[in-house]
Amino acid sequence: MVVRDYNDELKYLERIDANSWRIKKGFQPNMNVEGVFYVNSALEKLMFDELRNACRPGMVGGFLPGMKQIANVAALPGIVHRSIGLPDVHSGYGFAIGNMAAFDMSDPNSIVSPGGVGFDINCGVRLLRTNLFEKDVQPVKEQLAQSMFDHIPVGVGSKGIIPMTAHNLEEALEMGMDWSLREGYIWAEDKEHCEEYGRMLNADPSKVSLRAKKRGLPQLGTLGAGNHYAEIQVVDEIYDKWAASKMGIEEKGQVCVMIHSGSRGFGHQVATDALVQMEKAMKRDKIETNDRQLACARINSQEGQDYLKAMAAAANFAWVNRSSMTFLSRQAFAKQFHMTPDDLDMHVIYDVSHNIAKIEEHVVDGKQKTLLVHRKGSTRAFPPHHPLIPVDYQLTGQPVLIGGTMGTCSYVLTGTEQGMQETFGSTCHGAGRALSRAKSRRNLEYTDVLKKLEQQGISIRVASLKLVMEEAPESYKNVTDVVDTCHAAGISKKCIKLRPIAVIKG
Amino acid sequence: MFKRKLAALDHHAPDSFNINDEREIRNLVLWLENQKIRRYKIEDRAPLQATGPEWNANFEKYCKDLASPIADGSMAEKLEWLIGYAVSLEYSDDADKYKGQTAENVSKIVVNVPKVESSNPLDNMDFESPDFKKGILALAQILDVTPHPDHLVTLKAVSKVVRERLSQEALDKPNNIIVKGKPFPFQEADLGFDMGDYVLNQAAKILRLLYIHDLRDLQTGINETIVAVQSITADPKTDTKLGQVGR
Hints:
Mean pLDDT of chain B: 84
EC number (chain A): 6.5.1.8
Organism (chain A): Megalurothrips usitatus (bean blossom thrips)
GO molecular function, one term (chain A): metal ion binding
Largest sheet of chain B: none
Low-confidence stretches of chain B: none
GO cellular component, one term (chain A): tRNA-splicing ligase complex
Radius of gyration of chain B: 37 Å
Structural class of chain A: alpha+beta
Oligomer: heterodimer
Number of helices of chain A: 16
Enzyme class (chain A): ligase
């Protein structure tokens, strides 16, 4: 890493407009393209403070600051357009979380990197609507939260209540949501309203280690820990009434269920296995990167292809997982209200994935190209009329689900044409951490966090009270700042704001 | 033998006439005289009705009376002429009707009229008549269909409305069949491209809508198929004993 003082670093940064900054070549060595990041004034301060801290003498260890990570990604072979930091960007393993980068498939040197997808492969958000209103749910909020908690096991090491055999798992890995459909856990319309229709076709379970399968088998239908949650939310604000109406959201106060979860230990193991393989491939193919954590392999190499197939299997695992929790949430609601999920109109509005790499067609410098798009902590946000979004959203653009932090609000955005051009149809994914987990544990008391939630009238069920402070809103960037920046920059458009009334967490 | 000529004469069995059967020959000659040629008065036709060997002599005389040029030919040749004579008489009876049947006109008829005689009265309608056009316009007004300059396009639209909205099923359960759309300001919606011309952009927007409509039908069909298969395969299970809350 180049050692410069803070003021020298600033020479490589240039404001493009009110909501974006350019990272010029030379900020890190060997940059093939420029970097860019989207911020508003509040988020901008966080980014620059992080860089300044990293420039202080004696700062070693830990992750590199987000801006440096964005620049290191810009130095990877085969990258096109720009290395893009979304407003919620923060340091992660190799790639920053909230970093989007696309690689040209026709360039034999282009790479795929597990660090660009993240350990929780196909972590994502699913939103269900209901025809209930806040007044229907408030009186039974506690019972409903308990019922959800009883149906959906949470926490580290939790096990699901849907019986699975090893054979079932193999099929689920290959079929994704088609498996859930075949077994009758979900509705045909759920598949229609899911990114990739809930199934990556290139998934190959034979490329997944036995260890990953063993970890994954008991975990299907569980929420997990960390920032994952299931929330009962109510519509707090509608910004775009036509788009909201297309999603079946007509009025403020309407009740929704948001599920934020991923591929659990299965995806983590797939990523870990791949990193080992990639280190070998890097040596063999003499691939140089600025950061050891950016382990990668050529897309067309054996290791690259194996990873993409295993990653697709992990993505399918995550969709089956969210589908199982959809089934369980519907059951919990049906029992509480003595109505069928059908009568409660519990349809999936959409399901997005914010940790994934996908092959997509985009226009680069006026030419159509096939790219491998890495989105890590970044959500696909395709514009109206894009062929890969469901027919119901052809006029509005793809719904983008932004999960807030525990006790804050969440948003639904829609994709825009401008986003398609600037960020290859990508936008933010959530709040993004501001404090590290360790720092949160040091600075906050869990009793204070719980008291604050209670004051806000939010019911909470958690597996581990000790982990609550890691996920406290104070540990995160303000999700409203993040979403407003995306809206102002035009890379996606605000549609609905939701606020939680009950939270189930690991 | 003689199939075409006999058919032209409206003979009752032009396909099955057998020249080797004497009885059939006699019947044919008698039929030709009775129905078509009428050389003799009815009461003088008895010799042709003879059943014995005298018939041959009577037939020779009949041919002579008709001034047949075939004196020594075979029976087939004699019959050939006789039938041809009957056809010529038939033609001269109504020459005006037949003289228009030139090759040119015949080929035209073949194109315009389907060979198979249709029992569908609609096939015989004149789709271009002013009456027909007026009818469609009236129908369109009743059904609230915007008329198209080409009345056949209007008819197509009318037929679509009738099929989809006025079927027995739609009338019995209108809520199941008739889609209750929600309004959407598609005029303000992003088209995704600009052709630099207001009218063209409007047209493109309408094409987009039609495409989305088709796509919706396709997706609905897919969903229905999935649901049909689910009714065979689905068997969701849960077992709360397996559940375990983590740390």
